[in-house]
């Protein structure tokens, strides 16, 4: 396979990845490829000005009152799911729960 054929193949793969709505890791797993290969070709083909994945969304957090009492909690919503986080929560457990919810929602 020459360089042009390889590039065309990766352009098709990238289009498939973009259309899938999957994370890079999930798409690569389903297509038998390594994530570092996809990242390399994304950078090579789309350049450093690549547009972000359209499914990525950011939300702002506004704390009305900076004083946080022990009985207070915050509610985090991801899609249709919500989590109540109270003082003294376990950060790594919370991060794991958020990862699972992001994959499901």
From TrEMBL:
NCBIfam families: IS66_ISAeme5_TnpA. This is Transposase. It comes from Anoxybacteroides voinovskiense. The lineage of its organism: Bacteria, Bacillati, Bacillota, Bacilli, Bacillales.
């Amino acid at each position: 396979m020459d360089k042009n054929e390889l590039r065309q193949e990766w352009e098709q793969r990238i289009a498939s990845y973009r259309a899938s709505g999957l994370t890079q890791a999930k798409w690569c797993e389903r297509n038998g490829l390594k994530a570092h290969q996809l990242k390399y070709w994304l950078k090579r083909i789309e350049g450093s000005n690549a547009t972000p994945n359209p499914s990525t969304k950011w939300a702002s957090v506004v704390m009305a009152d900076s004083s946080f009492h022990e009985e207070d909690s915050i509610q985090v919503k991801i899609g249709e799911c919500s989590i109540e986080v109270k003082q003294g929560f376990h950060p790594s457990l919370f991060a794991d729960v958020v990862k699972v919810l992001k994959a499901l929602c």
